């Protein structure tokens, strides 16, 4: 068996339990159950999660590898409000609000505090949702992701110069910081990287006033199943919202580069940040649903010059790929450079495994390539590759391998960093 409904629509493996949750919620609402195949490894994972009751936090705080580029790294969080559209996840709200992080080449960074991988609110949400259903962490196990430090220094002055801008879109349910190894590496090599949280879709988004917007994806998907509107939900609410978020973030970055402060609270910005952005050179990459978002945003927005799709299907469909509900980018292709970077699994975005990925390769006139990383799994394209092997006290070897595969972590990360950095160096 290949993908669940949710996985086939937006991601290769993210939120593998979405269909099961939607089924249960729909049954409670009206006994309407979707008939969708589950990922073949899911029963084993679910069984483990029930048998293993590990409720204590991990005794070890995982460490992230130090970036190798010549630049120090700064970071700032921005609270952005788009008053031109209502929030489709929260209909009474007449505006859409986002949290993004800008990670950039910095100077005098040692004077500033290191940023956590996640805020406490995001960590709690990730533990409750994505950690369990995307990354095999046994239910009830708490990992303090907010104790893990990145190499970003909060609000450090930006380095002198103008740097290409790269957007990052996370997988379904993941948080914007869940590819910090690649993000920090890019920043250390001279890129400004902007990571975007899809509010109410991601596990948890913490705002400056302490509010945490928890994911509403499962309940809304359950309602769509009950109503028979799954495809519309995926087209207009999930991916359509993500693409519109991306466009709005680009508008906000233009304001930032023009010397304005787009932050909703107008919090002071790091010295020199606006002048560091070269918004004439914009790229994008994303994992799973974020990879889908990347190519579709490239198709719709001429400002994005190049992109990388990591393991994201390009089809709105349920169950196995049907070759009938391709996204616009899959139907028409791209005239811009792009890379499809895939894990070595049956759920990867490859021409052999996914017709939508074969279609975008066949229809594109821009420079493009498709590369598979041997011995990897879906989580290998995220921070799971480096963090999960350090959690052997709370995860079994089988659970870790289901996320990261069999290839040595150091080799996988070296290859990923080389491919991602090389692609943007060449095309921006």
TrEMBL record:
Signal peptide boundaries: 1-28
Molecular function in Gene Ontology: 1-alkyl-2-acetylglycerophosphocholine esterase activity
Pfam family, one: PAF-AH_p_II
Keywords annotated in UniProt: Hydrolase, Lipid degradation, Lipid metabolism, Signal
GO terms, biological process: lipid catabolic process
InterPro entries referenced in this protein's UniProt entry, alphabetically: AB_hydrolase_fold
Organism superkingdom: Bacteria
Region: Disordered, residue numbers: 29-66
Protein name, as recorded: Alpha/beta hydrolase
Species of provenance: Streptomyces broussonetiae
Lineage: Bacteria, Bacillati, Actinomycetota, Actinomycetes, Kitasatosporales
